[in-house]
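Morning run. Coffee first, then this:
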Amino acid sequence: MRFVSLFFALALAGAAHAGGVDRLKAFIAGAKTAEADFSQTVSDKTGRVTQQASGRMAFARPGKFRWDYTAPYEQVIVGDGVKLWLYDADLEQVTVKSLDDVIAGTPAALLAGDNSIEKYFILENAGEAGGLEWLEATPKNKDTSFERIRMGFKGDVLVQMELDDFFGQRTTLKLSRFVRNPTIAPSRFTFTPPKGADVIDE
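And here it is:
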C-alpha cells in the first residue's frame, strides 16, 4: 500500500489561548467526530518531495476513521473499531489487520483512540514557528513507524501535521474545510471488499 503508514494522521481542533498539549487534551475530551479535506506530501531526508496525495477524511472516537484518497491514486483506509481495512483500487487488493495491533503509538491512538493519550505518548509544547503553535508527541512504543509527531495549530484549529519516521522521511498533512462534531452515518466506518478484490487477512 503506497500510503499505508499515513492514514493515522487526523484533523483536530482545541481551545484558544492554550498551549499545544492543553489544546490536544481539550479536543480529546470534547470532539467525538470530525471531517476535513487533506493534502499530503512526503519528503525524504534531503527535503525532496517523493509523494503527493489528497482526499477527504473523517473519524468518530473511539477507534473509527476513514481516509478516502482521490489523487493520485484511489485508496480507502477504514478503521471500524475492530479491524483496519486498506483498499488499493489500482491493485484491486484489500489488506485487513487487527486495529489493536497497529493503532498503539500512532496518531490514531493519539486522536481517535480513548482518553489515555499519555499512556502511549510523551507530550510536550513545542513553541511557535511559521505562524503556528506546535505540540510534539513522542511515542512510548518503540515498535511504531514514527519517531515523533508534530501538530501545528492556528487559533483553535490544527492546520498542519508533521510525521517523522526513522528513515528520515517527513509526511506533512495540511487540513482544510475542517468540520468539528458533524453527524456521520455509521456506514462511513464500515468496509465491504469489492467483488473480485484480493483480500489479504493479516
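Confidence is low (pLDDT under 50) at residues 1-17. Good start to the day.
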